[in-house]
Amino acid sequence: MDAGAGSDGVWVRRGADVVRGGGDVDRLTSSSPEAGTRLLGGSGKDRLSVDDATSTALLGQSGDDQLRVTLVDGSARPTFDGGAGRDRLTLYTRGSTKIDLLRVDTARGRIDVDGSRVARLVRTERVSFFGKAIRAVFVGGPRADWFESAARSTRATGGGGNDRLVGGRGADVLDGGPGRDVLNGSFGRDRCLRGERLQSCERRR
């Protein structure tokens, strides 16, 4: 399906669908997809959403895109690719589902849940996790990264670039690494290392 010109809203479900956005701001949503489903944004600032990430590829292409994903355990290992621009991936969990450990590694391009790889991550500069998890680990790459977490405890390392790291509800450890970094511990008793701008950081060494 090709959405064509104009700002479009397209919702598909229960099938192996390929949906392409156009040159404007598009909202593409897939519900209960089957293997082979792909949502492709166009050149605008698109919003791509999927409520079952086991079998769907989200490809933002150009523009500053938003990718919204509900994490589920599976073996398909879909790809989340923001494309060109400054793109954001927001991760959720379904209902009462709780994760023991979420690991997001932009340097290696992967997302793991409880020790198993669940997705491939490409060209996505900002990652937000608003699901239920006991622990979250983030490893940034050489570019500027943005990570924010709602996990009970978070350990985030920025890597190179000017990073922004935001902790969750518990005792977090945030390490900006090289670059001029912004660290925000948020709630709990947090430790912040190698950051130039610090907020809500009770321990700074």
From TrEMBL:
Region (Disordered) location: 22-47
MF term (GO), any: calcium ion binding
Which taxonomic lineage is given here?
Answer: Bacteria, Bacillati, Actinomycetota, Actinomycetes, Propionibacteriales
- SUPFAM superfamilies in alphabetical order: beta-Roll (SSF51120)
Q: What is this protein called?
A: Calcium-binding protein
Instruction: List, alphabetically, the InterPro entries matched.
Output: Hemolysin-typ_Ca-bd_CS (IPR018511), Hemolysn_Ca-bd (IPR001343), Serralysin-like_metalloprot_C (IPR011049)
Q: Which organism is it from?
A: Nocardioides zhouii
Query: Which segments cross the bilayer?
Result: none
